[in-house]
Specification:
Length: about 350
């Protein structure tokens, strides 16, 4: 025979005031315990706060195919909320308020599943620990949705690049430069990125055939065996005509451009947010790159990449309201304040950021 379920003796429920938080917020909540019959061996009520990154992707093909996986519990704190005097639970109703702080450097909740899998998730777990080998714990869990804090939104950000252009047979064709300006650097999905650029081709002997403007998402994943997978998605793009040799864009010719922050291949699907995890790292940039006539592969083109941030859209709250049992009149205990470094169980994310020499850098 299998173990008895702890829920035969009662139920436990954990609820925070809301489900959606920013890193750096304070979380308030309650654990509700309703014991309906005696016989459960255990007296310790625990609360666990957990943050986890997961990755998975395949490489190779046929007999050489291989699956890469990453699992990283960067934050796990378990505290004793209450210890009853008796070794066996007594029938009754109890409420345990709690409070904890989310470190400001935590990465936001993340989920992506396509050619690779990547997720960052958070949850809180309440349980009464069973001391019997034949009875399972009484437990309940709730997901938390976290967003990285909104940093300063910079306006009128610009960047300039100048390059010596070399054509076929390594013939020098002069220099060309491009300067790109964007209206701001942080957006929600589906917003429009407004930008313009200046191109000076007066010292170049090659015509500019076209100028590419592309929104790029760079997703970097890591496995437990230290393997990495980097994918660049070109999400939305435009092509514009550039100036001829010996000329530049005149003030009266200058135009303003717009690119919507969508994936043209999947326009109904919101863009995944920017993210700074150790195993899951998502970055965005606007890339503006000129293309010259003929073969100019002997030299790099003056390409401008301006980083941008994509925020996660606030989700709709989906925590179902609690239905109180009949004659609900619980004994309420004093609130417990939970520290992130309880008994040495500190978050390993900040330690990893310091020790791993920034493995997600470009």
């Amino acid at each position: 025979m299998g173990n008895k379920q702890g829920c035969e003796f009662g139920g436990i429920m954990i609820r925070t005031e809301k489900q959606f938080y920013f890193a750096g917020d304070v979380v308030l909540g309650n654990i509700y315990l309703h014991v309906i019959k005696e016989g459960f061996s255990g007296k310790v009520v625990q609360l666990t706060i957990q943050g986890k990154e997961k990755t998975r992707w395949a490489s190779g093909s046929g007999s050489r195919s291989r699956m890469h996986e990453g699992k990283y519990n960067f934050h796990k704190v378990t505290v004793v909320v209450h210890t009853f005097d008796d070794d066996n639970l007594k029938v009754g109703q109890f409420t345990f308020p709690f409070k904890f702080y989310i470190p400001a450097y935590f990465p936001g909740t993340f989920y992506f599943k396509d050619i690779v899998f990547a997720s960052i998730s958070y949850k809180v777990i309440a349980r009464v620990v069973s001391t019997s080998k034949s009875i399972n714990d009484i437990q309940n869990k709730q997901a938390l949705i976290l967003r990285e804090p909104i940093k300063e939104i910079k306006t009128l950000k610009q960047k300039k690049e100048s390059t010596q252009i070399v054509s076929g047979c390594c013939i020098k064709r002069g220099t060309s430069s491009i300067e790109v300006k964007i209206e701001k650097n942080a957006f929600f999905p589906n917003e429009f990125l407004n930008f313009d650029y200046d191109i000076d081709n007066t010292n170049c002997q090659l015509d500019l055939e076209k100028v590419d403007s592309v929104i790029v998402n760079r997703l970097r994943l890591r496995s437990n065996s230290n393997r990495e997978r980097v994918i660049e998605f070109e999400l939305n793009y435009q092509y514009h005509k550039g100036p001829q040799k010996g000329t530049k864009i005149q003030p009266e010719q200058k135009q303003e451009y717009q690119l919507q922050l969508i994936n043209l291949k999947k326009p109904l699907q919101h863009l995944i947010p920017s993210n700074k995890g150790l195993f899951v790292n998502s970055k965005y940039h606007l890339r503006v790159q000129p293309h010259y006539e003929g073969c100019s592969c002997c030299s790099p083109r003056p390409t401008v990449q301006i980083p941008i941030t994509i925020f996660a859209l606030p989700p709709e709250e989906d925590i179902q309201p609690l239905i109180q049992p009949e004659n609900w009149n619980p004994q309420e205990f004093q609130p417990i304040i939970i520290q992130s470094d309880v008994q040495g169980q500190t978050s390993t994310l900040n330690q990893g950021l310091q020790q791993m020499a920034n493995p997600m850098k470009n």
